[in-house]
Design brief:
Layout lengths: L6 E8 L2 H11 L3 E8 L2 E10 L8 E6 L12 E9 L4 H10 L4 E6 L2 E7 L5 E6 L21 E8 L3 H11 L3 E6 L2 E5 L7 E5 L12 E9 L2 H13 L8 E2 L3 E7 L5 E9 L24 H7 L10
Parallel strand pairs: 1-4, 5-8, 9-12, 13-16
Antiparallel strand pairs: 1-13, 2-3, 3-4, 5-9, 6-7, 7-8, 10-11, 11-12, 14-15, 15-16
InterPro entries: Extradiol_RC_dioxygenase, Glyas_Bleomycin-R_OHBP_Dase, Glyas_Fos-R_dOase_dom, VOC_core
Protein name: Glyoxalase family protein
Pfam families: Glyoxalase (PF00903)
Length: about 300
């Protein structure tokens, strides 16, 4: 039986790209590790935010569509994206969210306390203290490594067929059920980050894709050889899995599980520093080879963005 270490990345749809950068870099203190385009729609940015090195399990990515219609969060989606912060930093984040007039709610489940809030475009987020996972050594504004977001804690999944989604997580992705509380089942992958998945047991009507919704959740494969094994494994489990797609910073395959959530499996390799140095990641617009000849046209059509300190 194959087992994923946990989440590789989560990709969402948002609105204006500058608002997106301001929220995730300026307020949450994440590093913009890659500025590129949607390989399937090069007129749109694909922005990646993560820890200092853009390690798997820390990366949230966005397709920003300024002026696009608002989506509706529902079945077949990641309902809430969970970020892990260092133990003892929750009060800091309460103060920081309040400083930027971001309304939050303090909740608890499975013995943990969460700060739940929305980004500027309606994406549902939460922060939870976790001891596991390396510190994020990126400093930006007043966000320093002792309080910085380490990466994903996990996610809450909303399904149109929760039993099928849970079965996929256990029998195909290799997660282990560890707890049950109220309407949630908690599963865990073996990695230290992006490893805790809560699934809402009540089926939800299918969500509507648009601004403020998650497009897909990606799981980790170790390398290219492991990735090929995953493709065969998923196919033999009865899912319609795509061909392997080269995303420049990882290889990807996709399949939709029977609760309608789009799953990706992505390689940890080669990572985000192979076309930029660690020091310069995210500073330049990086294009795949097939779009390099259209660089000037693409730059003209893309909305200018900058990483700004908001403190």
């Amino acid at each position: 039986m194959k087992k994923t270490a946990g989440i590789h990345h989560i990709t969402a749809i948002v609105g204006h790209p500058q608002e997106n950068v301001d929220f995730y870099a300026g307020i949450l203190g994440l590093r913009l590790i890659k500025k590129t385009v949607n390989f399937d729609d090069p007129g749109t940015y694909h922005l990646y935010f993560g820890d200092d090195g853009g390690k798997p399990g820390t990366i949230i990515t966005f397709f920003p569509w300024a002026g696009a219609a608002q989506g509706k969060i529902g079945g077949g989606q990641v309902g809430v994206t969970t970020y892990a912060i260092p133990v003892g930093s929750l009060v800091y984040w309460e103060t920081r969210l309040s400083k930027f007039a971001i309304r939050y709610e303090k909740t608890s489940r499975f013995g943990e306390t969460y700060l739940q809030f929305e980004d500027y475009h309606g994406l549902q987020l939460e922060l939870v203290e976790r001891a596991d996972g390396q510190l994020n050594h990126w400093t930006f504004g007043e966000v320093t490594p002792d309080v910085a977001i380490k990466g994903f804690g996990g996610a809450i999944l909303y399904s149109t067929d929760p039993n099928s989604t849970i079965e996929t997580l256990q029998e195909t992705m290799g997660l282990e059920k560890i707890a049950e509380e109220d309407d949630l089942i908690r599963l865990r992958a073996y990695g230290e980050i992006g490893n805790i998945i809560d699934v809402k047991q009540s089926a939800l009507a299918q969500g509507i894709m648009g601004v403020g919704t998650v497009h897909h959740i990606a799981w980790r494969a170790k390398d290219e050889a492991d990735h090929v094994d995953w493709q065969d494994y998923v196919y033999n489990k009865g899912y319609g899995v795509t061909e392997i797609k080269d995303r420049n910073y990882f290889n990807a395959i996709y399949f939709r599980e029977y609760g309608d959530i789009l799953f990706e499996i992505a390689t940890d390799t080669p990572g985000f520093a192979h076309d930029e140095s660690y020091e310069t990641m995210g500073q330049s617009l990086k294009l795949p080879t097939q779009y390099e000849s259209a660089r000037e046209k693409l730059i003209t059509n893309l909305i200018p963005i900058e990483v700004r300190e908001l403190d």
